[in-house]
């Protein structure tokens, strides 16, 4: 009996021990499984964090502005490639790096700060650096600095201010004259004097409208860079410009002549723009010539381009002014130009037309001997040339306007 009890107790103990071991084993497996799942979740989370960090870095690197990020202690954590050009820089660029460090330190104390840094070059540049604290929910995450090259916006802004100032200045003179003349005219009882005053009013009004025409033409050409191109016969352009200029040339007794070795010269261009450029060059040549000083226009083919040259024997342009005459509103002798009616936009129009067409305009001039302006434009292909030349010779026959018989 005792033996049976002992055996039963032993079996029960054995079964119990087995059950405990089995339960422990189950707990162990479950704990292992949970740890594995936890590890996997952690790894996935880490991958996601790394991925979004990479995405953020790549986005910062793609920005065409310098970005520098620092932690709350001021240690730089990231610098995008644009900002990296200033680290270890020598000369002027080192000033940008110094400004970034100083502004980041100030931003770390919770202030948004900014500064312009002039780099004297060459090329001269102006950089704008601003830094701001990175804060959210009262917690400080460090600071970030942004670096911008503001050279071009500053240049455009200065140009815009100059342009407005120049226009106001140019318009003020004829407007003032008009108002004065009108006032005098209103009080004038002598019909002869009144009629003389009326002629002067008309002259000022014409001058004003010429200024407005030049301004509108320049603005149209500037906004019309991708204008439609078509084959344009050079001969036709010159004939048209001569016809427009004939009254002024006749009045000044300035003879005009054209030398075109081939009648079928054709440019690939926007007709209105090119006509305006050729007219402006010829107008200047006539304006700056005296009686019996011939103005000659010639054209030749050179390396896929047509070169239209306008040459005069007039007053010429002093060397020191030659580089600047293509700038808007630039005039060699303002007091003289005032009576001639220009405001310094003619050559700006010519240069703009040339660049719009992938060409150029050159000047050669000797003071007291005369000037030569050459407009270089792309020549049209053979088929367009033949077609346009045919049209030009038809027009020539119909108009019977002899080239070389101007003035
Ligand atoms: P504007 O429209 O007042 O004539 P432009 O832009 O055409 O001005 O010309 C700029 C300056 O260049 C003028 O002030 C003028 O003195 C000078 N210039 C232009 N063409 C000639 C030329 N053929 N001969 C002498 N001076 C010229």
Please characterize this protein's 3D structure.
This protein has 407 residues and is an alpha+beta fold. It has 3 domains: 66-149, PAS domain (Beta-Lactamase); 152-223, Orthogonal Bundle (Helix Hairpins); 228-400, Histidine kinase-like ATPase, C-terminal domain (Heat Shock Protein 90), CATH 3.30.565.10. Helix content is 56%, strand content 20%. It contains 11 helices and 12 strands. The protein has helices at 2-62, 81-84, 93-108, 151-187, 191-223, 234-252, 271-287, 319-322, 334-340, 346-356, 382-399, and strands at residues 66-70, 76-79, 113-119, 125-136, 139-149, 230-233, 256-259, 266-269, 295-302, 305-312, 360-366, 370-378. The strands form 3 sheets. The chain has a 5-stranded antiparallel beta sheet, sandwiched between helices. Strand 4 (125-136) and strand 5 form a beta hairpin. Mean pLDDT is 86; it is low at 401-407. The structure holds adenosine-5'-diphosphate. Adenosine-5'-diphosphate binds at residues 280, 284-285, 288, 312, 314-315, 317, 325, 330-333, 337, 342-348, 371.
């Amino acid at each position: 009996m005792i033996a049976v009890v002992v055996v039963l107790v032993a079996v029960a103990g054995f079964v119990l021990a087995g059950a405990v071991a089995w339960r422990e084993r189950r707990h162990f497996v479950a704990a292992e499984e949970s740890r594995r799942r936890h590890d996997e979740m952690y790894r996935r989370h880490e991958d996601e964090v790394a991925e979004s960090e990479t995405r953020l870095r790549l986005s910062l690197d793609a920005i065409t502005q310098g970005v520098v990020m620092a932690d709350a202690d001021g240690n730089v954590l990231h610098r995008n490639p644009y900002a990296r050009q200033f680290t270890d820089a020598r000369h002027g660029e080192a000033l940008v790096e110094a400004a970034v460090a100083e502004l980041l330190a100030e931003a770390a104390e919770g202030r948004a700060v900014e500064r312009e840094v002039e780099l004297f070059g060459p090329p001269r540049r102006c950089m704008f650096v601003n830094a701001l604290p990175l804060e959210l929910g009262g917690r400080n995450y460090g600071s970030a600095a942004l670096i911008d090259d503001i050279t071009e916006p500053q240049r455009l802004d200065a140009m815009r201010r100059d342009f407005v100032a120049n226009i106001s200045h140019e318009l003020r003179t004829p407007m003032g004259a008009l108002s004065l003349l009108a006032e005098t005219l209103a009080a004038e009882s002598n019909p002869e004097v009144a009629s003389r005053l009326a002629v002067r009013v008309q002259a000022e009004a014409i001058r004003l409208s010429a200024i407005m025409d030049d301004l509108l033409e320049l603005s149209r050409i500037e906004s019309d860079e991708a204008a439609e191109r078509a084959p344009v016969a050079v001969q036709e352009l010159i004939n048209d410009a001569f016809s427009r200029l004939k009254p002024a040339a006749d009045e000044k007794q300035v003879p005009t002549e054209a030398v075109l070795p081939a009648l079928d010269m054709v440019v690939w261009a926007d007709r209105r723009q090119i006509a305006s450029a050729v007219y402006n060059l010829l107008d200047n040549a006539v304006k700056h010539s005296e009686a019996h000083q011939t103005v000659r226009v010639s054209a030749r083919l050179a390396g896929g381009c047509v070169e239209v040259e306008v040459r005069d024997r007039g007053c010429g342009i002093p060397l020191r002014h030659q580089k600047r005459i293509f700038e808007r509103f630039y005039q060699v002798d303002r007091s003289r130009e005032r009576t001639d009616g220009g405001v310094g936009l003619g050559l700006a129009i010519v240069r703009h037309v040339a660049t719009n067409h992938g060409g150029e305009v050159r000047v050669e001039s000797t003071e007291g001997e005369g000037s030569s302006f050459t407009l270089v434009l792309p020549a049209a292909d053979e088929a367009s040339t033949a077609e346009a030349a045919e049209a030009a010779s038809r027009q020539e026959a119909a108009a019977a306007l002899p080239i070389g018989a101007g003035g």
